[in-house]
Amino acid sequence: MTRPLYLAAAAALLFALITTSANAFLWFGSGATATPTQTPTPSLSPTPSATPTPTRTATRTPSPKATPAPLARQVVGGEFDFIAGDHTSFSKLGSRFGIGPKLLARENGKQMTDKVNEGDTIHIDNRHVVPLELPTGIIVNLPQRMVFHFEDGRITGAFPAAIGRPEKKWQTLTGAFKVIQLREDPTWRVPASIQDEMEAEGKDVVDEVEPGPDNPLGKFWIGLSLPVLGIHGTNRPLSIYSYRTHGCIRLHPDDIEALYEAVDYNESGEIVYLPLMLARLDDGQIFLESQRDIYRRGTGGIDALRSLAQANHIDSLIDWAKAESVVNDMDGIARDITIAPMNAAANATGAAK
């Protein structure tokens, strides 16, 4: 796979990559090659005979263990100032940049409902841990509401997403998959379960939506081998970075186009459920990201985090008061929990004794 992943100008600001050597660059940059840490073995389901639609027919298995992800090596995103244009809001910025709008407003000394005026400077921190890596393929981490794409051992895209609602019926499936469909201008064949919901809500019931501005699948559909599941665009960009879908994975129109152009048929991937992620970069910085356990499958908490740090011999390098605060806050941003140099030296002396 050699096609470059070109993002729109606005999306170019989204995710500056902090590589394992701590060199930052935009997605247009070349980047360092990363050695994969985990490659899932796909478990394929039968290919659907018709265009998949987001209905839930498969039996879900619970997460096998409530532990953090394996120690990661990369953080995407960054801290930067954004000059607001006309009709900007914290909700719009949050959905586009992958940060909760309430948190974004609070970190700028505002309330989420406060007006953002044209010309206002908004400070944005949208750093996220890359939980797993692949040689080539797609990783979706549900609690993060993030989709990551890899080519030739390096990360080439990171996109905020909307995932399935918390109700059991609509939760997004987890597991390894293959890309089995790539469709432009898809027709949405509305599942009976969603038609029932339309009727219950007093809406006009439809069984099919043709391509166009009213199609909730947007312009591009990437069908996966997991039962009736896909990654697609949307006609409601403000819904991105939320838990609002009927099970499918929804991307911003610019981002689904970029991913659609980058993936191939039969490309591998995995959907995972990892609310708690720890990363150590090559420069020694340690980041922790804690997301809400939206599907109530457990996180492992501070004890599992300590065990992971001890197993990787980095527990003495972590400010554990900061770490506990990050775990409890669950604000969804990768936070630097590296212990101050003076404290680290004191810890090392104590350990030597």
What does this protein structure show overall?
It is a single chain. The relative contact order is 0.19. The chain has about 350 residues and is α+β, with helices and mostly antiparallel strands. It has three domains: about 180 residues, L,D-transpeptidase catalytic domain-like (Beta Barrel), CATH 2.40.440; about 45 residues, Membrane-bound Lytic Murein Transglycosylase D, Chain A; about 80 residues, no CATH class. The strands form five sheets. An eight-stranded mixed β-barrel has the order 7-8-9-16-14-13-10-17. Strands 2-1-3-6 form a four-stranded antiparallel β-sheet, with no helix packed on it. The radius of gyration is 20 Å and the shape is globular. The N terminus is likely disordered. The N and C termini lie far apart (about 55 Å). Strand 13 and strand 14 form a beta hairpin. About 20% of the residues lie in helices and about 25% in strands. The protein contains eight helices and 20 strands.
Topology, pairings included?
Layout: H1 9-12, E1 17-18, E2 24-25, E3 75-76, E4 79-83, H2 90-97, H3 101-107, E5 121-125, E6 128-129, E7 137-141, E8 146-151, E9 154-164, E10 175-184, E11 188-189, H4 192-200, E12 208-209, E13 220-224, E14 229-232, E15 243-245, E16 249-251, H5 253-262, E17 268-272, E18 276-280, E19 286-290, H6 301-311, H7 320-329, E20 335-336, H8 341-352
Parallel strand pairs: 7-17, 9-15, 14-16
Antiparallel strand pairs: 1-2, 1-3, 3-6, 4-5, 7-8, 8-9, 9-16, 10-13, 10-17, 11-12, 13-14, 18-19, 19-20
Helix pairs in contact: 2-3
